[in-house]
Amino acid sequence: MYYEELITFVTLAEVKNFTKTAEKLLMSQPSVSLHIKNLEKEFQTKLFKRSPKYLKITPTGEILYDRAKQMITIYEQTKLDILEHHNSIRGQLKIGASFTIGEYILPTLLHDLQKEFPEIELQVIIGNTEEIVESVRLYQVDIGLIEGQTNEKELSVHPFMQDELFIVGANDSILAKKGEVPIEDLQNQSWVTREVGSGTREYFNHVVRSNGLKIKSILTISSNQGIKETVINGMGLSLLSQSVIERDIKHSNLSIIKIKNQSFTRTLSYVYSPIMEEKKMVKTFIQALNHKWPNKNAQS
After folding, report:
1. pLDDT of 170-228, one tens digit each?
2. What's the predicted TM-score (pTM) here?
């Protein structure tokens, strides 16, 4: 397509002066003449009648003038459409999330993301931390959100928020009725907790070890909801994220057991393979994540 020549031709047809056309297009007058000659050769017609006193467009020049304006408009709009396509956020984004994040924390972010970028097709895979890290490593997901730790050196790990956990029990449990209790009161208790490989189980093990707690029994359930229902029925205590128990506490289904001089906080992180770092939708997701939970709230 003779895009530059067409621009020159349309300008000359409107200005009716070679010198002024050259000045307007920031080119030399011989270049203007060459562009017109190229078009006349291409269309095998004279486009202008020239004399020392005037410059007049020919009938075939009038035909080209109308078409040229259309072609220029179509060309420039096509460039804009292609640029918009490359810069728009569209396509599929696969997110891996550990159970607590995927079921209780991520949904509000997905709502915001879908609202701002309606052309993104979101797919969420939920598993425990170990499973999500493996999915990221094998490129089964574009990015993962985990509540535990990973030693995968080939992956990039970044904190995005702090998550507080609480010990909960049935409303009629002895510890729940005591109010604030010392950590020693947790000795020889029955616990309901997540499976090995879960970030919540990993953190629970850390709390047990660091406080020298002895355990009476452990019931393992690979579902936060299953754990809550079991605790509600008085089968033990559990250590769960605030996001998991928030509604149950509000509706008095569970009771928080307050521990003197103790708080339980962990860091939630996003993890991805460096090869995914330049993927536009991954960048957009990370920006949305950090906007919702600014990094100042997370510790590296």
Report:
1. 999 999 888 899 999 999 999 999 999 999 999 999 999 999 999 999 999 999 999 99
2. 0.70
Strands (E) located in the chain: 48-50, 55-57, 91-98, 120-127, 143-146, 156-169, 189-193, 215-220, 238-241, 255-256, 264-272
CA angle 195, 243, 162 (to 5 degrees): 90
Contact (CB, 8 A) for 211 and 186: yes
- Residue that has been written with the tokens 């020693």 in this structure: 184
Q: What angle do CA 56, 58, 64 make, to 5 degrees?
A: 115
Instruction: Give the whole-angstrom CA distance, residue 17 versus residue 7.
Output: 14
User: Tens digits of per-residue pLDDT, 3-36?
Assistant: 999 999 999 999 999 999 999 999 999 999 999 9
**End-to-end Cα distance, the chain:** 55
CA distance 103 to 225: 10
DSSP strands (E only) in 106-155: 120-127, 143-146
Q: Whole-angstrom Cα distance, residue 105 to residue 163?
A: 10
